[in-house]
Design a protein that fits this description.
mainly alpha; 29% helix; 2 helices; single chain
Length: 75
Amino acid sequence: MNSIDALKILRYSALLPYSQNEPCPNLGSGILQSGKPQGDVDCSNAATSIDALKILRSVAKLSYTQNEPCPNIGS
């Protein structure tokens, strides 16, 4: 995950257009192996601006909280 992923999630949550590289499913639609929607990094069952913030904090090596047992970002 990187800042571009965070930007895409922010655009998605603001109902703005974003581009997605194939074969990646669109944000909020594809279900990952974790059973969560694409872009949902904190296991809240939705891709939101909070997910984008957590990705940005992870990229900047800052602390962030996860809903257990949700895996850490990038693991």
